[in-house]
Design a protein that fits this description.
Blueprint: E1 15-17, H1 26-34, E2 37-38, E3 44-45, H2 57-74, E4 80-91, E5 97-100, E6 107-114, E7 120-124, H3 128-131, E8 149-153, E9 159-163, E10 167-170, E11 179-189, E12 191-192, E13 202-203
Antiparallel strand pairs: 1-9, 2-3, 4-11, 5-10, 6-9, 6-11, 7-8, 7-10, 12-13
Bound molecules: fe (ii) ion.
Length: 204
């Protein structure tokens, strides 16, 4: 007898590429770490176009290639998606990044330029079974169907791409140096809607 097939319907695909290799000189990493920042611990860079830096041209290409793979191969959309903003997120040892999402963006990415295998990227949502009917099941093993939280190990060289409205956070930085993450948002470039649906067309 064939094994039953499970369709993980109506899910939020999170794309994770481990083990990316890139050549960012230490001097550039130091500059990115020291860019003027915002927030209580200056964790986010004021610069929201860091991927425009000439010394990050290869990193931009890498991010664009994987974003394209995500949109085209995983989401199966034919839209032209462009990176709109890009910034640095920095956390000293022991410091976390609280839950949030990314407004005014469709898909977002986080590329870990300096991290530790013990660092966690957390995702927060509500699973199908308890979203509309609060009910306490006895969970044998947490899996993607029964969980409201999930985490992914994010060592140096990990890229995570996800729907921008998905709540996420970073656990306390386990590295004894500053964790350095390059983040980006994206949006559609082009026209939405069919030519026959005049009132619903949107040109971006
Ligand atoms: Fe974020």
């Amino acid at each position: 007898m064939q094994a039953p097939v499970i369709y993980p319907l109506f899910s939020a695909p999170v794309y994770v590429q481990f083990g990316l290799e890139f050549n960012v000189p230490d001097s550039t990493l130091t500059e990115l770490e020291q860019l003027p920042g915002l927030g209580p611990d200056c964790g986010l860079s004021q610069n929201i176009d860091v991927l425009d830096r000439p010394d990050l041209a290869n990193i931009r290409k890498l991010c664009e290639q994987h974003l394209q793979l995500y949109v085209s191969n995983i989401c199966s959309y034919d839209n032209d998606i462009r990176i709109t903003t890009s910034w640095m997120s920095r956390n000293p040892p022991g410091v976390d990044h609280p839950p949030h999402n990314h407004p005014n963006s469709l898909f977002s990415g986080c590329l870990y330029l300096k991290s530790s295998p013990d660092n966690k990227f957390n995702l927060h949502g509500q699973n199908h079974f308890t979203k509309h009917w609060p009910f306490t099941y006895n969970i044998k093993t947490n899996n993607i169907y029964n969980s409201d939280d999930w985490w992914i190990p994010v060592d140096t060289g990990t890229l995570v791409i996800f729907p921008s409205n998905l709540q996420h956070s970073a656990g306390p930085n386990q590295l004894d140096e500053t964790r350095i993450v390059l983040c980006f948002n994206s949006f559609i470039k082009g026209t939405l809607g069919s030519s026959g649906d005049f009132a619903a067309r949107l040109k971006l």
